[in-house]
Amino acid sequence: MSAALIVAEPETTTRGYLERHLADDGFEVLGASATAEALALAEQVRPDLVLVTELELCLRLREGEPGRSWNRDVPVILLGGEEADVVDRVRALERGADDYLVRPFSYEELLARIRAVLRRATPRAGDLLVAGEIEIDRPTR
To answer: Which of 19, 26, 58, 71 is most buried (most C-beta within 10 Å)?
Structure first.
């Protein structure tokens, strides 16, 4: 089963590049050019991971919004601008980002970080017991 990713990237060329390559690497990819579109997709699709370019979107995914429901624990990787410094990266991580990558970045590094975050976020086989509608996550009980 492939992981579903939302790529919230306002820049059309970069979004297209990421959508194409991530799909080639086996992910189900949905692109969003604006915050509202990304939030609507997060509610409809229930993604396994979201790539964002704005800290505001990360915060809104974590805090939730009235009238919307999605998994607030969905992993988020922030793709920051090349002007980002250590303070920007630390603030993003403290405010809910699971990882932070500064532009320009290598696609291979992004792919490795996506896989690492998904590994940490996905229960290991045997840790999740399912019986009908009941699910038991052994580590968290």
So the answer is: 58
Which tokens is 39 given?
Answer: 């939030």
Give the integer Cα–Cα distance in Å for 91 and 16: 28
Q: Which two tokens stand for residue 27?
A: 């992910």
Q: Who contacts 25 (Cβ-Cβ below 8 Å, separation ≥6)?
A: 111
pTM exceeding the 0.85 threshold for the entire prediction = no
Strand partners, 32: 8
Q: Is 103 helix (H, G, I), strand (E, B) or coil?
A: coil
Which residue(s) pair with 102 in the sheet? Answer: 80
Element (H, E) at 136: strand 134-137
CA of residue 15 relative to chain centroid, distance: 14
Q: Are 89 and 102 in contact (CB under 8 A)?
A: yes
In 43-119 the beta strands, taken as DSSP E runs, fall at 49-52, 76-80, 99-102
**From the centroid of its chain, how far is CA 68?**
18
81-138 pLDDT per residue, tens: 999 999 999 999 999 999 999 999 999 999 999 999 999 987 655 667 778 888 887 6
